Amino acid sequence: MDSAGGHRAVAEQALKTAITAPESVTKSQLRRVFRLFESSDKSIRLSASWTIGLLVSERPEALSGSVRSLVSLLASEPESVHEDIYRSLAYIATYHPKLVRDALEEIDLTEPEIERRVVRAIDGYQPPGDGSVTVTATSGVSEFETVITRDVERTRPEQRQPTPHTSPGRPPEQPPPTPPAIEGRSDSFSPVKSLSSGSRVAHEQVRYTTTQGDHTAMRKSLRESVSTEFDAAFTDAARQWQAVDDHDAIVPVIGYGTIPTPWLVVEYQHGRRLSQRTGSLSRPEASWIIDRVVDALCYAHGRGVIHGGLTPRNVVFTPSYDDELWAYPKVSNWGLSRLFRRFSDLPLGVPPAYAAPEQVAPETFGGVDAATDIYHLGVIVYEVLTGRPPFVDHPGMMLRKVATKPPSAPSEHNAALPSAVDTVVLKSLQKAKLSRHGSVHDFQAELSGALEAAQ
């Protein structure tokens, strides 16, 4: 096993133990977690910081003697890993603020500099569904619960309350037209502009020509070579996606291949993502969006295709360019979340808030299958109707809650929701897969009835 593979195995096991049995973590295991910060893989370092956050929340005393060891990594490791170390220190500072502050001052950081660096490592970090990490200096929603300030206050992420949009609007009578698929090589598509930078997966806007004219699309391609086994798995995922992309709420695949590296061209979406709209939708539009997304999953499952990583970021909108018509939702990234997680900054392939129990603890809850899509649909419906996901905390604690705690009812965050909606959504979020709906079709029928009764 290569060094990255070895680090990844240690990171996954450490996070799993911190979630399920934090009391069993020994000092030697903790030292191995600290060594994970030496990895060049962002997802491995994230797992390490989440593990520390979980451990300190359950066993604050276990980390008290390790602060200086963690701070010493700031001197020995490159600047690129410092953000993850500061994040871990912020978790520890929740319980041991003086220890953290004193240790940081020993490396000649002033108190304002300590606050700036640690807050930056926590506030504004939003791993998107496609796995490309961004850190922004905004005051928007943060995934993390704690930031270190002068008094080291405990804070919670700002929660988006439902603020229904009241413009009339209506769904389009027809779905938007889609660009044609072609059989060609990666160089059949001409680059227009880059849509991402710094990631191991390149995203580009591209143009191609058919007998029907010129078309715009988006190309995703790996920046590095992979094994033939990965090529085969990628080809299978792309083929399965293309097999169901004739549904109007599924982003169509235009072309794919593995030379020179795996690449995929899909319809270019000019609109926003569902993750940018939750909590601000009118009840009728929210119900319509939910119906289209659930219908897309019904169609795919009927053909033996699962998504495996559905999040609000994977629901994108095609604008209608008519103020009276709603933008059309389409589900993207079919089958790619788990496959591409080794190239992303998401250790589980999805952000912690959207992970299913079987993605957090597969030994307990089983593997990813159609029931996982039902859980993910439940999370999306929960957030669309309430403006927040079922669990809100720092990432490690969210993972523990996903595996061990029941979510609160949606109506606790949106009093306008009836108990019938609570019943359907909470059933989809059961830990045991057999306790969820038997199929997406069953989920669709029960949810439609509950939402209609709520109108």
SSE layout and pairing:
Layout: H1 3-20, H2 27-35, H3 42-58, H4 60-64, H5 67-76, H6 82-93, H7 97-105, H8 111-122, E1 190-194, E2 201-210, E3 213-222, H9 228-244, E4 253-257, E5 263-267, H10 283-301, E6 315-318, E7 328-331, H11 357-360, H12 362-365, H13 370-386, H14 395-404, H15 419-428, H16 440-454
Antiparallel strand pairs: 1-2, 2-3, 3-5, 4-5, 6-7
Helix pairs in contact: 1-3, 1-14, 3-6, 3-14, 5-6, 6-7, 6-8, 10-13, 10-16, 13-15, 15-16
Detailed description of the structure:
This protein has 455 residues and is an alpha+beta fold. The protein folds into three domains: 3-122; 186-267, Phosphorylase Kinase, domain 1, CATH 3.30.200; 274-454, Orthogonal Bundle (Transferase(Phosphotransferase), domain 1). The chain has helices at 3-20, 27-35, 42-58, 60-64, 67-76, 82-93, 97-105, 111-122, 228-244, 283-301, 357-360, 362-365, 370-386, 395-404, 419-428, 440-454; strands at residues 190-194, 201-210, 213-222, 253-257, 263-267, 315-318, 328-331. The strands form two sheets. A five-stranded antiparallel β-sheet has the order 1-2-3-5-4, with helices on one face. The protein has a two-stranded antiparallel sheet with strand order 6-7. Strand 1 (190-194) and strand 2 (201-210) form a beta hairpin. Helix 6 (82-93) packs antiparallel against helix 7 (97-105), helix 6 (82-93) crosses helix 8 (111-122) and helix 10 (283-301) runs antiparallel to helix 16. It is globular and about 65 Å long. The termini are far apart. The model is unreliable at 123-161 and 163-167 (pLDDT under 50).
